[in-house]
Write a structure and sequence with these properties.
Helix content: 25-40%
CATH architecture: 3-Layer(aba) Sandwich
Shape: globular
Radius of gyration: 15 Å
Number of helices: 6
CATH class: Alpha Beta
CATH superfamily: Gcn5-related N-acetyltransferase (GNAT)
Order of helices and strands: EHHHEEHEHEHEE
Strand order of the largest sheet: 1-2-3-4-5-7-6
Number of domains: 1
CATH topology: Aminopeptidase
């Protein structure tokens, strides 16, 4: 079942965010061990006014618990939603200044995550479709995301779901395809 996330999902969703973040989790944790970022993401998931908040997240729940999540938000709100995260990151590195991965005109799909033991079962596709419906219901006409160039399987998944690459972006040390889909 897909449903809006709740604060009590924090312990399940924070480790999932690490899966979707990849090398970025390591940057945030200032560690080669991405799991060191779990407390960081857990704290932000619990607070409503940031890009990783439960308020911007849908979860996939089974009798086993939460096994997938997706979060997204209006790209026009990126700077407002990112600011609390930047404030925390600036405590360790005042010069940290990432490029924008989204902007006005698209509902941005930030993190799409499925527990490793449940990948390949269509859960990610269901979450993406559900967030597309949610974004459309909010009045957005287009969804956008970025996918690392070194992840062709993810790009193929997004293409099967109606996304198309419209360019490339540099973000946090990697090159990404910027993909969009009309809602």
């Amino acid at each position: 079942m897909i449903r809006p996330a709740r604060p009590e999902d924090a312990d399940s969703v924070a480790p999932l965010l690490i899966l979707g973040m990849g090398h970025i989790a390591g940057i945030f944790a200032r560690s080669d061990n991405h799991a060191d970022a779990i407390p960081f993401f857990r704290d932000f998931f619990l607070h409503p006014a940031n890009q990783y908040s439960y308020t911007n997240t849908l979860v996939f729940e089974t009798e086993a618990g939460v096994i997938g999540s997706i979060n997204g938000y209006d790209g026009a709100l990126l700077h407002v939603l990112r600011q609390p995260v930047l404030d925390k990151l600036h405590e360790a590195d005042p010069t940290f200044d990432p490029d924008d991965e989204t902007g006005p005109g698209e509902f941005y799909f930030d993190c799409i995550n499925v527990h490793q033991g449940h990948q390949g079962k269509g859960i990610g596709s269901q979450l993406i479709r559900a967030l597309c419906v949610h974004a459309g219901a909010l009045g957005h006409a287009r969804a956008g995301l970025i996918v690392d160039r070194v992840n062709p399987a993810a790009r193929k998944l997004y293409e099967r779901l109606g996304f198309e690459a419209i360019g490339e972006k540099d973000f946090m040390g990697h090159r990404y395809f910027h993909m969009v889909r009309d809602l």
